[in-house]
Amino acid sequence: MESAAIHAAKEILFLIGIILLFGSFSGILARKLGMPDVVVFLLIGMCLGPELAGVIKVKADSTVNQLILIFGSSYILFDGGAGLKLKVLKEVWITILIISTVGVLITTAITGLAAGWLLGLPLITALLLGSTVASTDPATLVPVFKQVPIKERVAQTVMSESAFNDAMGAIVTFSIMGVALGTGGKFSLGSAAFGLVSNALIGVLAGAVLGYAASVLIAHEKFGFLMEYAPLVTLMAVVGAYLSAENFQASGFMSVFVFGIMVGNKDSFGFKMENQEQEKMEDFITTTALIMRMFIFILLGSQVNFALMGKYLWSGVALVLVFMFVARPVTVFCCALPDRRAKWSLRELLFMSWTRETGVIPGALAGILLGMKVPGADVIAAVTFITILLTILIQATTTRWLAGKLGLLV
After folding, report:
1. Where are the alpha helices (DSSP H) in 120-229?
2. Which end of the chain is more exposed for a tag (fewer CB within 10 A), N or C?
3. What pLDDT is attached to residue 193?
4. Cα distances (angstroms) measured from residue 205 to each of 136, 299, 361, 374
5. Relative orientation angle of helices 152-180 and 360-371, to the nearest 10 degrees
6. Segments of the chain scoring below 70 in pLDDT
7. What percentage of the chain's residues is helix, strand, coil (to nearest 5)?
8. Which residues contact 112 (CB under 8 A, 6 or more apart)?
9. pLDDT the model gives residue 185
10. Which CATH code fits 74-405?
């Protein structure tokens, strides 16, 4: 008679095999249909979940799910950061800074007020819903821009925003949650602002230090003795960057993103790899990021609660429309127009207004609220998943089409 540990191991192996099998066919199908693969992964996950086929039964709060969520999102963020160019970021850093901070507050306020009116929620619960969905999702956006060739500064601005606004979204959500749970007396604007700044600085510092160290080890002329093991170095360093920042109560996602920027721009620091080794590392990163996308979005789709979503479907859809067509455009125009240095065109602003998929990070925040039994958490979770589904299915699938219409494809 096999032990519980062996039984659990077999279940995990079965899960891995199923996700890789269906994920591979889904990737091929997405390429044939000309759409981002995350969309097909999400739909396949919904079909395989306990609500329909019942093949995948992984709870959102399980250790396996959290491990895949944390490492997968981290590696996808690293991949996104590695594709950014410092010379481009220098042109648009003001927009990124404003939209990642003030932009989250604007989105929270507009979405929260609309939620209070459409869903009849108390103001504090409505604002909590607004803050939960206010963060854009790097795990969704990075793969989309990897597959759709968009004008560099537009793509990199949106991807950078999705990485940097994670900390702000979490701080706003937990601050409002404190009020909702009756601990609001401990909240102050000063402490929240200090928390945000320290969160950002520690995350950036941890990512920069580890990114520079990794660049030395894999590409330095004298000290790059790990050049042949560069792919493995990226795995170790992604874990190290995330945990280093999290241990100091900072944003691990921001840390791995900055780590990716450092490694991707190692040439700027005088480090250069041989072409063969560089290609080997890039192939490894691309393949690993693809596998992480499969696991994250198939699992995310399998955890959709159709009954809960159905209860708030139409009011939730109405709120998502406000979110997409009012909150996001107002946020983009208010945060990007003051940046005179970037000189954003109307076409670029319109594209950024449309491109802001919601995904893993808001889903994780909604799960935390459910676990802590915050008042109104069931409504927040239902509407958050409606938002995730609609933004990914509608916005991600139309990214290439809209970019073409606006003349932003390269």
Report:
1. 123-132, 138-147, 152-180, 189-219
2. N
3. 64
4. 23, 32, 22, 34
5. 10
6. 1-2, 138-139, 167, 182-196, 220-224, 273, 360, 371
7. 80, 0, 20
8. 123, 126, 127, 128, 129, 130, 131
9. 46
10. 1.20.1530.20
